[in-house]
Structure formats: structure tokens, C-alpha cells
Write a structure and sequence with these properties.
Elements lengths: L1 H12 L24 E8 L2 E17 L2 E12 L1 H6 L3 E9 L5 E10 L2 E10 L4 E7 L6 E8 L9 H6 L12 E8 L2 E17 L2 E10 L13 E6 L6 E7 L4 E10 L2
Antiparallel strand pairs: 1-2, 1-14, 2-3, 3-4, 4-5, 5-6, 6-7, 7-8, 9-10, 10-11, 11-12, 12-13, 13-14
Length: 263
């Protein structure tokens, strides 16, 4: 289940990188991301309700590495039958630079069945380092600190997804593929993301003109067909993530928006 989640989320969440006016940062103008936003989702496997997810931007602005940041959290949990099979209670989070739209700090607190993981990653963009703090899976005490070299303007799996919402897709050619970079599990990933164009879709919160993107997923035992993972985001100022669909070898997984709270 964890490998499947990462296979879907990592390519979608690692989309693009950013800089600010003085190296290593640049200013990214945007209107999509605002404090206090909260988005609720339903996760389904076929016709079965499998889980719930919530994406939250804290109402307050935080300071990390002397930079103002949005604090963004993604919470995921299983429900019903899937909760009996493998109980999941995950929290993935980022401190997202409000001007550069890059990660200053990433954290994950994972509970999936008997599997536990607690980790914090600080990004030193000026010195091109990711400092990984490995924590005790029960107490949260620091066990080990490890540094990794990273390319400029690195994202994490949460910040990359939110940066995507600041892009002007009118400047991106349909069917073009972008290489994006993200740091996760001690590794720098380079992932191709294809922009497939626009579609009109119906959701629980209304009908939207939507932008469609698809990560280039290497052939594996989980996914089926071309563009097996697709994501839909609203084609408006807010760029609201509306839906994710993954075509699996057996069945399909969907994440659908069910409530939006924001300005």
C-alpha cells in the first residue's frame, strides 16, 4: 500500500521548482495559495470507500530559515474495510516559502499497519544541502542527522504540488513533457510530467473547466495503460486540485474533492 501511494503521489506532487530574486531564490507571483485554505477528499477503490484525505494551509504565516512560509499539511487515513486491512494515519507537511514557493522544511509522520516513520528534512538552498533528521518512530527523539547534496531549487513531495498551482498553463504546450526535481527518501528524483490539455468535469462542489496532467510512470506491477495516473486541477486563479485517478492492474483508485474551504 505504501509503495502504491508513493507511486501515485510522488510524481504528481513533484512538479516544478522555483527561485527568488537573489540566488538561490526568486520571486514567484501567485494568487492561488492563501492562508486558511482547507480541501477535503474521498478516496475510493472501485465502488468501495477506502479513505479520506485533507489538505490544509495554516491560517498563520511561519518563519523557517529566516523566510516567511505557509505551513501546509496533508492528512490521509483509511476507513471501513480498508481500515481493518491496513490502518493508515499519515501526515505529510511542508513549510513553503511564500515568495519563492520552495520547501524550507519537510516532515512526515507515517503510521501504516505496523510500519512507522518520523522524519524532518531541512533544505539549505544557499548551500545546496538537504539535512535529514531521522527520528525515533515512537518517541520522536532525534536518532541521526544526515546531509545530502541537492541541485538548486529542490522541492519536496508536498511543496512541488502546491507550486504547480502557481503555474500559467497557457504558456505550456499541450502534450509537452516537463522534467521536475524533488527530494524524498534520501534521493533526488527527476520525473517527467505531461500536460494533456483541458477537460470539463463534474465534482461534488460543482462543474469545472480543468487542466489535466499526467506523470510519466515507469512500467511496473501496479499500473495499467498509457498515462495510468492523471490529475485534474481547476482552470482558474485558485488552481484547486479536484481529482486524481490511477488505473491499476486490478481495478482503479480515485481521489475526489468533496469540500473546499477558502477565500
Amino acid at each position: 500500500m505504501r509503495k502504491l501511494f508513493l507511486g501515485i503521489s510522488m510524481p504528481v506532487l513533484f512538479l516544478f521548482v522555483a527561485m527568488y530574486s537573489t540566488a538561490p531564490y526568486r520571486y514567484i507571483p501567485q494568487k492561488a495559495l492563501k492562508p486558511g485554505e482547507k480541501i477535503h477528499y474521498k478516496v475510493s477503490y472501485g465502488v468501495i470507500n477506502a479513505g479520506e484525505a485533507t489538505m490544509v494551509i495554516d491560517p498563520n504565516i511561519h518563519t523557517v530559515n529566516n523566510r516567511p512560509c505557509f505551513k501546509v499539511d496533508i492528512y490521509g487515513r483509511t476507513i471501513g474495510f480498508f481500515d481493518l486491512m491496513i490502518k493508515i494515519r499519515d501526515n505529510w507537511g511542508t513549510y513553503l516559502d511564500t515568495s519563492a514557493i520552495v520547501s524550507q522544511r519537510f516532515y512526515q509522520y507515517i503510521e501504516e499497519g505496523k510500519y512507522r516513520k518520523k522524519e524532518i528534512i531541512d533544505f539549505d538552498h544557499r548551500n545546496s544541502k538537504a539535512i535529514v533528521h531521522r527520528l525515533d518512530k515512537h518517541s520522536g527523539a532525534l536518532k541521526e542527522k544526515v546531509k545530502f547534496d541537492i541541485p538548486p531549487h529542490m522541492q519536496d513531495i508536498v511543496s512541488g504540488y502546491y507550486y504547480m498551482r502557481t503555474l500559467n498553463f497557457d504558456t505550456i504546450a499541450i502534450n509537452s513533457v516537463f522534467e521536475i526535481k524533488g527530494f524524498f527518501d534520501d534521493t533526488v528524483y527527476h520525473v517527467g510530467v505531461e500536460y494533456l490539455g483541458k477537460e470539463k468535469i463534474k465534482t461534488r462542489i460543482g462543474e469545472y473547466d480543468a487542466l489535466v496532467i499526467s506523470p510519466i510512470v515507469p512500467q511496473n506491477k501496479f499500473f495499467s495503460g498509457r498515462n495510468p495516473v492523471r490529475a485534474w486541477i481547476s482552470d482558474d486563479e485558485k488552481k484547486i486540485p479536484l481529482k486524481v485517478r490511477a488505473n491499476l492492474i486490478v481495478g482503479g483508485l480515485e481521489i475526489n474533492i468533496r469540500e473546499y474551504e477558502g477565500q
